[in-house]
Amino acid sequence: MRDMLGREEVLTVDDAKELLLKSVNLPLPGESEIEIENSLNRILSIDITSPEDLPPFSRSTVDGFAVKAEDTFGATEMLPAYLNITHEILMGEQPASDLKKGEAAKIATGGMLPQNADAVIMFEHCHMIDEKSIEAIKPVAPGENVIQAGEDCKKGAKILERGRKLRPQDIGALAGIGITKVRVYKKPKVSIISTGDEIVSPAGPLKSGQVRDINSYNLAGLIEISGGTAIKKGIFPDNYDLLKKALEDSLEESHIVIISGGSSVGTKDMTARLINDAGKPGVIFHGVSVKPGKPVIYGMVNKKPVFGLPGHPAAITVCFELFILPVLKILTGEKEDLYGKIKKIVRARLSRNISSGSGRQEHVRVMLEQRDNELWAVPILSKSGLITTLVRAAGTIVIPMYKTGLAEGTEVEVELF
After folding, report:
1. Kind and range of the H or E element at 111?
2. DSSP-derived secondary structure letter, 69
3. Least CB-packed of 72, 100, 199, 272 within 10 Å?
4. Do β-strands 256-260 and 304-309 pair in parallel, antiparallel, or remain unpaired?
5. Strand 81-89's sheet: what is its strand order?
6. Which residues of the chain have pLDDT under 50?
C-alpha cells in the first residue's frame, strides 16, 4: 500500500526513532581538556570527584561572635550568659587562638571558626558590656550559624557525573574545589547543505521567484544550542553532480550531514538518491507519519548520519527536535536527565478546539498567554512554510497519531523551543 507521496510505507515517529537510535549508539571518540571558563554547556567525559573538603574549614554564616554553644544554654534577656572576648578573627586568616570555656571571638560572615567553637551568636542577640565582654541574651545550638568543614562536599565525593551538561553552578562548584580544567567530549560537526534553484543568500537582492535562505540559519542555531558545531556549506542548485560533491565533502569534514530541501517527490528532488549513492547502508527510512515533516529522510553513509529535511521552516524545527537532536545527544555524550525534560515542558489549557487528520502525529505551534493566573496555549494555525509562526510560538503541542483533535480547555503539555 502506497502513501500519498507514492512511497511504499510511512513509519510512525516511534518506529523511526527506534531505527535511528539503533544505528547511532556511542559518543564521538576522543576528548578535549578545556579551561572551566570555556566549559559552559559542554559535556563531561569523566566523573568528577572532589580533591578536598568544601569548605576546607568551618566558617560563620553571620556577623557575630564564635562561641561554644553550651556556654549560651539558658540565656535570656533577664538572665544573660556572660562571655569574655578574647580576640577578633580577621577575614582570610586563621584564628589566633582556640576558645576556652566562657570565651568568645568576634567574627564576620565567612570567617574561620577557632578550635573548640561550634556555633556563632549574632550581634543582634548580644549586648556589649565593654570592649572585652558581652552578654548573650539568646542561646545558640551546636552548629547554628555555621557551615561545617566538608559540609558542601567531602574529599573523594563524586560531585559531577560523566555525560552531564555543565551549568553555571557546576562550573562554580569546580572552581570551589580547585579544578580549573575538565575533560569533555568533542562537539559534533554538522554540515548543512541548502538546496533549491529558488534559494539565494540573505545578503543579496531578490529576483522574481526567488526566496532568501532561512533554513540554514535556523538549523545552525538549533545545532549550536544543542551542543554541535554548525558548518554551512552553502546554497546549491538542484544539480545532482554539484550536490553529490557537496555531500562527499561534508561527509569528509563532519559527523552529521543535513540536506535542507529535496526530501519530497518533486521531479528535481534527489536527496534519497544522493544518500544511497554515497555509501552503505544508505537510506534507512523515507517518510514518517508526522505533520509537519512527513517527507523526512534518514540514512547512514559509512557510519555517519545523513538527514534530508523538507524545505518548510516549521518542518525543519519539528524534524530537528524529533530526529536530529537525539542523535546529537548521543554523539555529544549527553545523558538525558529528568531536569532537562521537565525544564522544556509546561502544562497549559488549550484555548480552542483543534482538529487533526487521524493517522499522523501532529505538532501544533502555540503561543502562551496568562489568563486569571492560569496558563493557556493558543494555537497558531497556519502553513508550515511561514517562519514568523515559529517566531511567535513558544513551543508545540502534540496531537497523538490516532486522535482527530483536541477540545478547548484540554490540559496539554507544551514542549518549549
Report:
1. none
2. G
3. 100
4. parallel
5. 119-122, 64-67, 103-107, 81-89, 133-136, 126-130
6. 1-7, 267
Side-chain-side CA neighbours of 395 within 13 Å: the count stands at 19
The C-alpha atoms of residue 391 and residue 367 are separated, in whole angstroms, by: 10
Position 52: which residue type?
Answer: E
Residue 137 corresponds to which amino acid?
I
Q: Within a 13 Å sphere around the CA of 42, how many CA atoms are in the beta-carbon half? A: 21
The CATH-assigned architecture of domain 13-29+187-336 is: 3-Layer(aba) Sandwich (3.40)
| Residue 2, pLDDT score | 45
- CATH fold of 59-147 reads Molybdopterin biosynthesis moeA protein; domain 3 (2.170.190)
The pLDDT, as a whole number, for residue 128 is: 95
Question: Using an 8 Å Cβ cutoff, are 8 and 147 in contact?
Answer: no
* Helix locations, 142-206, DSSP H: 168-176
- CA–CA gap between residue 54 and residue 76 (Å, rounded): 35
Strands (E) located in 213-359? 229-236, 256-260, 281-286, 290-291, 297-301, 304-309, 345-350, 354-355
pTM of the model: 0.85
Tens digit of pLDDT for each residue in 221-249?
999 999 999 999 999 998 999 999 999 99
- Do the beta carbons of residue 295 and residue 318 sit within 8 Å? no
CA distances from 185 to 33, 102, 118 (A): 9, 56, 44
Tell me yes or no: is domain 31-54+154-185 CATH 3.90.950.10: no
Question: How much is the pLDDT for 31?
Answer: 87
Other Cβ atoms closer than 10 A to 376:
19
Instruction: Identify the H or E element spanning 98.
Output: none
Q: What is the CATH number of domain 339-416?
A: 2.40.340.10
Listed in order, strand segments (DSSP E) in 144-185 are 146-147, 158-160, 181-185
How many Å apart are CA 16 and CA 122, to the nearest integer?
63
Ordered by start, the domain boundaries in the chain are 13-29+187-336, 31-54+154-185, 59-147, 339-416
pLDDT at 100: 95
First to last CA, the chain: 36
Distance CA 352, CA 376 (A): 10
Other C-beta atoms lying within 10 Å of the C-beta of residue 338: 7
Nearest by Cα to 230 from 186, 166, 187, 185: 187
- The three-class DSSP label of residue 210 is coil
